[in-house]
Amino acid sequence: MDLKDLKPSPGSTHRKRRVGRGIGSGHGKTSGRGHKGLGARSHGNTPPSYEGGQMPLQRRLPKQGFRRTLRAQARRDEFAIVNLSRLGDFAAGVTIDAAALAARGLIPAGRKVKVLGDGDLKSKIKVRADAFSKSALDKIAAAGGVAELVTATKS
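Above: the chain's sequence. Below: its structure in token form.
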């Protein structure tokens, strides 16, 4: 068998339908599209959600949930979260701020920092952050450290 001997199976191929070539062809005038209507137009495909003029499903169903507007989203403070368990790796007596955390790869650079109270703190350290949880403040004070707010923020 050679490549020249290959051909499609009998009945698997069809001649291309030539439309708009006169009334004698059987596909003249409307070219098989019928009379008028959206199917007869050049832009005749309807979207999958189209229901023939009936009120579409996405408009019949009630709206649910809450969508925050872009303006409110930009106004909201985005914090990089750090737990006290991650701060235990720092040496005693050192000041920990956003730059020190970013240098160790704990947070992305340039982000506001919020310290949460998950974990225990054994060393006496000074923590400078934009926000603290109540439990984090209590645990830092119990270890003899200092928690200092960098800026007053909404948390």
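DSSP finds five helices and six strands in the chain.
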